[in-house]
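Deadline looming. Please check this record:
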Amino acid sequence: MAASDQDSLARCLDLVLTPVIRFCIRRSIPISDLRNAAKEIFAREAKRELELSDEKVTVSRLATMTGLHRHDFQDKESLTPPKIEEASIAARVITTWEVSPRLQTKSGKPK
């Protein structure tokens, strides 16, 4: 891939992912939950692509297409999504403290 193509791809990913990351931060969703959700979506969409092209769906093929490890496929048949756990109380308190306007100084820093 040419450098300009890589730069364009990086900019596109930034545009798409920035709102998702902001959403996660505001709701105290840790990166581990985002990573688990992304893995599930990669697996689901790879499976869909294979089915649309009438190709056999196998864990090996899905792992190759997505870069995921074979053990990332919890249920090899249904590709059950991993559960997203609720953020800890401490994480929610800290996030609220960091993003709530009433708990910030005039410059936008937590009090």
